[in-house]
């Protein structure tokens, strides 16, 4: 598969609409009661935006999120209105070519500033902590687990929602309850588990293991809704089911490949981030495209 260069968004405005917020990966434009979310090709690792983009990444994140928002809407409502650019407001039509395939028109919600992480297997930073302390995000786990092992039950590990240039910080469920209330916390946790279980079932049928993922939620008129992105290679750790073996670090369809490269070269995880080699960029793009193909059931390109 030849990996080309996807369209780039370089201006600070789309049509006559000014940029409202630039996240690590997404650009947000405020349209009053609605938001325009553009998924760029930017990639972050260890909460730092890297200097290189990943071709087609924006389209993949948008396409997968649209698929999963529709797949999980019976579990919890979400913010998506449409990804059909022809249905966007007139002010955006001059940039339709740039917006096509990598943008979503969504309802504006009051964001709940908690990263909601669900883990079904022990890997990544969770495995590193467990090896040292026998805990994950400070919570004690059973002794004797091996790398990538399936956990006895799903665990929920919240963190703060960091802005660009800042680091997420793990917090306890008690701290989450103190910040947003016990009832809302409980609802978020149970909804997160239900989402994870539904997505895991579909992913396994597609030959993918969903190791862990993170969600963001908001509220509209007091109703909990799912926002941002969902079950993408940016927000989730995906493994090929036929290669899974506890006690090893499986090949992944997500940005763990980039994290591993950056760790191998000894980067200190502080900005500025190093340039990615062309081969790392190419392979990362191919991994994202493969995840899209397996989950959605068709090629993106």
Strand tally: 16
- What is the CATH superfamily of the largest domain? ATP-grasp fold, B domain
The fraction of residues assigned to DSSP E strands is 25-35%
Separation, N- and C-terminal Cα atoms: 10 Å
| Number of contiguous helices | 7
| Gross geometry | globular
How is this structure best described in words?
The protein is α+β, with helices and mostly antiparallel strands. It is 30% helix and 28% strand. The strands form four sheets. Strands 1-2-3-4-8-7 form a six-stranded antiparallel sheet. Strands 9, 10, 13, 14, 15 and 16 form a six-stranded antiparallel sheet that branches. A hairpin with a 2-residue loop joins strand 11 and strand 12. This is phosphoribosylaminoimidazolesuccinocarboxamide synthase.
Helix-strand blueprint:
Layout lengths: L12 E2 L2 E6 L3 E5 L3 E6 L2 E4 L2 E6 L3 H15 L8 E3 L13 H4 L3 E5 L2 E2 L2 E8 L2 H10 L1 E2 L2 E2 L9 E11 L12 H8 L1 H24 L2 E13 L2 E5 L8 E5 L15 H9 L13 H19 L5
Antiparallel strand pairs: 1-2, 2-3, 3-4, 4-8, 5-6, 7-8, 9-14, 10-13, 10-14, 11-12, 14-15, 14-16
């Amino acid at each position: 598969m030849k990996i080309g260069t996807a369209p780039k968004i370089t201006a600070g405005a789309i049509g006559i609409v000014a940029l409202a917020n630039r996240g690590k990966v997404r650009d947000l434009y405020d349209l009053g009661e609605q938001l325009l979310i553009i998924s760029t090709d930017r990639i972050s690792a260890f909460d730092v935006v890297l200097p290189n983009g990943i071709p087609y990444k924006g389209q993949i994140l948008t396409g997968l999120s649209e698929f999963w928002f529709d797949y999980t809407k019976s579990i919890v409502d979400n913010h998506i209105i449409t990804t059909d650019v022809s249905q966007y407001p007139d002010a955006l039509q001059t940039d339709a070519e740039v917006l096509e395939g990598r943008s979503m028109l969504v309802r504006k919600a009051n964001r709940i500033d908690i990263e909601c992480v669900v883990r079904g297997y022990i890997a990544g930073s969770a495995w590193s902590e467990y090896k040292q302390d026998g805990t994950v995000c400070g919570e004690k786990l059973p002794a004797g687990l091996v790398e990538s092992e399936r956990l006895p039950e799903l665990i929920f590990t919240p963190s703060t929602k960091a802005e660009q240039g800042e680091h997420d910080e793990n917090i306890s469920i008690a701290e989450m309850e103190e910040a947003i209330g016990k009832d809302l916390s409980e609802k978020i946790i149970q909804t997160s588990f239900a989402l994870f279980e539904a997505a895991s079932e579909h992913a396994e049928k597609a030959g993918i293991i969903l190791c862990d993922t993170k969600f963001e939620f908001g509220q509209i008129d007091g109703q909990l809704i799912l926002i941002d992105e969902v079950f993408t290679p940016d927000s989730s750790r995906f493994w090929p089911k036929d290669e899974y073996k506890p006690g090893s670090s499986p090949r992944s369809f997500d940005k763990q490949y980039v994290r591993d490269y950056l760790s191998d070269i000894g980067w200190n995880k502080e900005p500025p981030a190093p340039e990615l080699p062309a081969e790392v960029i190419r392979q990362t793009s191919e991994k994202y495209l493969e995840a899209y193909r397996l989950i959605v059931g068709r090629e993106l390109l």
